[in-house]
Structure formats: structure tokens, C-alpha cells
Amino acid sequence: MKINVGSKNPVKIEAVREAFNLFSDFFGNVEVEGFEVSSGVDNQPKSLDEIIKGAKNRAVNCFNNCSYGVGLEAGIFPVSNSLTGFMDVCVCVIYDGKKVVGIGSSPGFEYPRIITNRIVQYGKEVGEIFDELVGQKKIKQKQGAVGVLAHNKYTRKDFIREGIIMALFPILNKELYSGE
Length: 180
Known about the structure:
Blueprint: E1 2-5, H1 10-22, H2 24-27, E2 31-34, H3 48-62, E3 68-78, E4 86-95, E5 100-105, H4 113-122, H5 126-134, H6 144-149, H7 156-172, H8 174-178
Helix pairs in contact: 1-7
């Protein structure tokens, strides 16, 4: 089975591979390939609707000669009663060439206020901010901001993989999701 991912980021590609392989009894052997595609949204989405739209656009735009196109988009969105007013989540959209067949998300969490302020006030991207803070380059292609905050006990790949698994539920349980 061929799975296309709407990103060339190796962390996202490996997260997709691991999520589908978790259900190898259902999907069999999977070949996963990443493609550079447009999300059609801001580099740092700031609403849940924008995050979902970006993931959907990536899934649709990478679908070509495959069983599924997988789009992943992370961003922050307003949450009342939270510490900073925003939470971060990664959304996964799975597209079968005709329609969206699965949507899921990672767990949500808050950044420290200094990070959220830089995103909201200056429009900076999370990866860029964390590169500056920890003195590394392309942290989003490694452990990610999640890995830094979790002291590398939980990484960006782990975070993304959970959203992909959630998006697989309707595919794994078609009989439950096709009824009313």
C-alpha cells in the first residue's frame, strides 16, 4: 500500500510510517513517501479551522498514485480558561482520492507565555523560535519543540503519530463510521 505525505519533513514521514505499521494486520506493508506541497495556510496557523484546512490541503495536494494522502498541520488555537489563551495541536487528515476519510489530532498543550507571545505578536513560527532558544537548527525536523519541553522523553514524532492514529479510526472501523 502506498501512502503519500504532504511534507518532506522526515519526522512527519516516519510518524506516518509508524502509525500505519502499528496496524500492519489491517494495512499490510506500507510504502510511505513525502512530497513538498502547499498547505494554503499561514506558516504558523493560529486557529483550529486554519490548522484543519492546512492538513486537508496537504492531504489532497499530495494525493497522486497512492491509496491515501496524509496531511499534517500543527498550530495554535484560542482556548478560553487556558494559561496563555492558546494551545498547540497537530491535526492529521487522510484523503482517499475522493473524500476525506479520517481526521484526528494529537494531544493539545500550551507553550510558555514567551513563546505564545512571539507567535501571536510577531508571527514567528514555533520551530524558528525554538531554534533560537536552544541554539539548534531545524529543531522541527528533530525532536521538535515538544521534545525540548518534554526533556526528550516524548518527541515531535510521538506527538504527531498520536494524531495519525486517531485519524485512522474511521478507516479501521468503516462499519461503525458508515452508519447513523
